[in-house]
Amino acid sequence: MQRVSFRGTFLLLAFLAGVGLSFTFPPSPLGWLAPLPLAWLFRAVARHPPGRAFRLTFAFATGIFGALLLWLPGSLSPLFGPGVAALYPVLVGGLALMWAGTAALTRRLMGRATLWALPFAWVLLDSARGLGPFGFTWGSLGYAFASTPLVQLADLGGVSLVGLLVALAAAALADRRPRVLLGAAALLSLGTLYGLTRPPDPPATERALLVQGNVDPRAKAQGRTADELGRYLTLTRAGLAAGPALVVWPETAAPAAPTSPAVDRALTALRVPLLLGAPTEEGGYRNSVYAFAGGQVRGRQDKVRLVPFGEYFPARERLDGAYQAVFRTLGLPALTGAVPGRTLAPLPVGSVRAGALICYESTFPALARAQVRRGARVLAVVSNDAWFGPSVGAEQHFQMGRVRAIETRRWLLRAGNDGVTAAIAPSGRVTARLPRRVAGALPVFFAQTTTVTPYVRWGEWVTALSVLALLGLGLGPRGWVRPGTGPAS
């Protein structure tokens, strides 16, 4: 391995191993295999000096993110023109640099302890990727086990704990010592047993109606019309024929806020509590969810986590000339972005206290946790995934959000413009779902719960544990180091 040129075969092998890891993420059923390609990477990093570790990890990460996000240019180009496809290599390259930098830094600082430092370093990497205005959590290791019973461990330590388990299993495979492999097998077995023995979901006794309008995103981009509101009203009335329910409409379903007279009258006539996505003009454009009941607005939640360079453009006013040039090059209109929300609080709608998450926000565990800590007894995700088109991107988005139900042990009600519209039990089980890209109303049952999981109570304790583990590995005895894993000669 040490004599193979890094300009050829070895880097290609790293790239292909990364592609292999991408095929273990949802909606793939191959999650159990995720530690295998990651073990190859960890062993290679531990056996080579930092510079080579950087290059091979960059190739590996280009493979995983290049394949995992392959839907991106095809999804955006029909809406914004072919020029926007240029964002795809920039995003993949940026993510690959983060992976490569983490590997090289760990190799440099940890020396012969690198192999067992890598799992904890990856926990910190995945945590860091979710921070700040440019947070992006696609490819976090814990999601690879989302289709396995091991994902149930998320109620103990969030998706970070599940990701640590993926990485520890990979390190054990790379280590290859029998006692280490047996220890890893025991750990996975205990995690599986935990997942298979969770208590049953609480009885679902309350009724909701999730409405999927299937409105063409290109038509919405050209201008909002009253026809959109009419479509949702028609679908809702048909769905309510079976009886009253909490109604959930998707992100930006209404063309105007329910404070406008026309929307207010239409919603009041339904005589049911609603959660609906609608735009708000207040100091700029805001992407909002409204709670409407009893003929009036009961609360509003503005989107806190905006999509970088989709809803949020850093220093937009100061760099106006540069942005205008980029927009012209990409064939885009002069985008301005949205105003972010500043607070999170459950919305009271009828007898329900709902923690609202708007689209992209469902991929951030901290937001769901914050809603539950503040009293949310059910989670509601409103989304507009129509811009994904027929790609796998919408399904990836849905499966990531599904883990929020497990972390908090809350029912999750999800309404999407063209899908995914579904009800998810606290176990992560999908109890009902509409097909994508059709208009419809889905009647579902749910329950409000007040359980406080260890993850909700203690938050990202796995990240703190990882910091301590790295300090211990860097400063303490190296009993876990496998002989022969030092730098290549």
TrEMBL record:
Q: Which domain of life is it from?
A: Bacteria
**Annotated compartments:** Cell membrane
Q: In which pathway does it act?
A: Protein modification; lipoprotein biosynthesis (N-acyl transfer)
Q: Name one GO cellular component term.
A: plasma membrane
Record's keyword annotation contains Transport: no
Residues in CN hydrolase domain copies: 211-451
Q: Provide the transmembrane region boundaries.
A: 53-73, 79-101, 113-131, 151-173, 180-197
Keyword Acetylation present in the record's keywords: the answer is no
Quote the SUPFAM superfamilies the UniProt record gives.
Answer: Carbon-nitrogen hydrolase
Gene Ontology terms, MF aspect: N-acyltransferase activity
Query: Under which main EC class is this enzyme filed?
Result: transferase
Q: Which InterPro entries match?
A: Apolipo_AcylTrfase, C-N_Hydrolase, C-N_Hydrolase_sf, LNT_N
The record's annotation in Pfam families points to:
CN_hydrolase, LNT_N
Q: What is its EC number?
A: 2.3.1.269
Q: Note the Gene3D superfamilies from the entry.
A: Carbon-nitrogen hydrolase
The Gene Ontology biological process terms listed for this entry are: lipoprotein biosynthetic process
Keywords, sorted A to Z: Acyltransferase, Cell membrane, Lipoprotein, Membrane, Transferase, Transmembrane, Transmembrane helix
Q: What membrane topology does this protein have? A: Multi-pass membrane protein
Function comment: Catalyzes the phospholipid dependent N-acylation of the N-terminal cysteine of apolipoprotein, the last step in lipoprotein maturation.
The UniProt similarity line reads: Belongs to the CN hydrolase family. Apolipoprotein N-acyltransferase subfamily.
Q: How is this protein named in the record?
A: Apolipoprotein N-acyltransferase
